[in-house]
Amino acid sequence: MSKRNIIISVILACLVITGTGFGAFYYWGTHHLDSVVPGKVYQYSSSLNGEVNSRVMYVAFQEGGNKAIVGQDRTTVLNATKSQDAFDKAYNDQSAKWEYSVTKTTLTLGKKENDQVSQWQYNEVFAYGDHFTSKDFFYQIAKGGQGEVKQKMTFKEIQ
Fold first, then answer.
1. What is the C-alpha separation between 52 and 129, in angstroms, rounded?
2. Residues linked to residue 100 through DSSP beta bridges, in sequence order
3. How far lies 48's CA from each of 13, 38, 151, in Å?
4. Dihedral of alpha carbons 22, 27, 29, 35, sign
5. On the CB side of 94, how many CA atoms lie within 13 Å of its CA?
6. Are 94 and 70 in contact (CB under 8 A)?
7. pLDDT value of residue 48
8. Which residues of 76-95 are buried (b: 16+ CB within 10 A; e: fewer)?
9. What is the pLDDT of residues 76-108, one digit of tens each?
10. Phi and psi of 89, rounded to 5°?
11. How far is CA 29 from CA 7, 62, 125, 150, 159, in A?
């Protein structure tokens, strides 16, 4: 084998190993959402065409259940996670009842208010470190229609 062929073989092997590593990392990041959501509190916001929306919301996900607390007041949502009693009280104090469903790749938030149900489904979620993102989401609003929004949503864990 010539020196040239050895160099080409080494370069190709390095490219294959690097590609496999990136592929494994991407697969891991897009297939473990169900292990990072329950029991945590996230601040979520959106960005469109690189511009971040100044409105943020906070959501606390129940550990071992499907209830969620959603609101604009960070302190209220954080305090709800101090104990199960605090969570139950905050959940019952909400005007709307929020629930969630999470799989390895998707998060669905549902809101029931006045016997009307609305939901938002975040697909192709990538989770890494203390946050996860979705490049778009589907929505179905009670008496308001449905559709898809091509807007990046970022959920950043807070404590």
1. 20
2. 109
3. 39, 27, 5
4. negative
5. 25
6. yes
7. 63
8. ebbbbbeeeeebeebbeebe
9. 999 999 999 999 999 999 999 999 999 998 999
10. -65, -50
11. 33, 22, 8, 20, 22
For 130-147, how does the pLDDT look when each residue is reduced to its tens digit (9 = 90+)? Answer: 889 898 899 999 888 999
With a pLDDT cut of 90, the percent of the chain lying above it is: 43
- Cα separation, 70 vs 88, whole angstroms: 13
CB 148 within 8 A of CB 136: yes
What pLDDT is recorded for position 62?
93
> Identity (one letter) of the amino acid at 35?
S
Does the pLDDT value for residue 109 go beyond 80?
Answer: yes
Average pLDDT on 111-140 reads: 90
For the whole model, what pTM was predicted?
0.83
